[in-house]
# Entry
Amino acid sequence: MNFSSLNKKHRIPGKLEITSEHGGLPIAIITNKFAKVLVSIYGAHVLSYQPKGQEEVLWMSSQSTFEEGNPIRGGIPICFPWFGPHASDSQKPQHGFARLQMWKVTKTADLPGGETQLCLSLQQDQKLKTLWPYSFLAEMIITVGASLNVAFRCTNTSKEQLSYTGALHSYFTVSDIANIKIKGLRGSRYYNGIGATVPSAQEEDNLVIQKEENRRYIDTTSDCIIEDSGLSRKIRVGKKGSRVTVVWNPGAEMAKKIADMPDDGYKTMICVEAVNAYNDIVVVQPKENRTLATTITVES
Ligand code: TA6
# Structure
């Protein structure tokens, strides 16, 4: 990839530069009056979000490989066009192929309120056709303002209806998993783990993580708030176009089995994910599109 011509075409002086970092992957560095954000063009993957004068918001594994062919462990991976393992073919990549592709930079913009926007796209090609038969246009629109907004839009460019599952699988950094409470899920029902078929009810105001958790909350559109007493901050995780929220922490035993996560990595991260799955499978008619978005705001 020719970084300098990509940068020349899309840079916004003083606000957005595309450079080669992290093992040679192209990375957009956005710096404006609101925050500093790093985005890998490989995977259309937000790696870091640091609002001005504040601590890092997203968690990134110190053991992530940053190599094409591997997913990046941390930040905001996009899962598309399926969430989790493929329904019928275990040879196909977990969480779909979108996080494993080099995306195209289509547009950058300096918006009137001082926000900075980066737009990326991915389209079907011969290789992707073997994994998923539909013709599609996927776009990732990342807007850095007082909040970080990440919007994934899929347009059906084929002649037949298509359907998919997916997620914005956000990893947040926390002072210590023992210090956090997650609010916003009370009254929702969740499947406890991948294989669960009977939902449990969330009766408590606060979700506290004391072991491995992989909760799949259905029929919820609410914001979640991660309250972190160690960092004295609240992270508000909003979403649009999703009725499922997944909360995941691998716990001590599972973390040891994840090759690109340090053994103690589970102590400083929590995933709160905007998901389309279960009874929220996305169906798109030809020429139509659907958007899944998450908005991340730090509140003191
Ligand atoms: O969203 C939770 C989950 O689906 C877990 O089951 C766990 O496997 C996690 O995502 C991470 O998946 P990955 O393929 O990135 O290792």
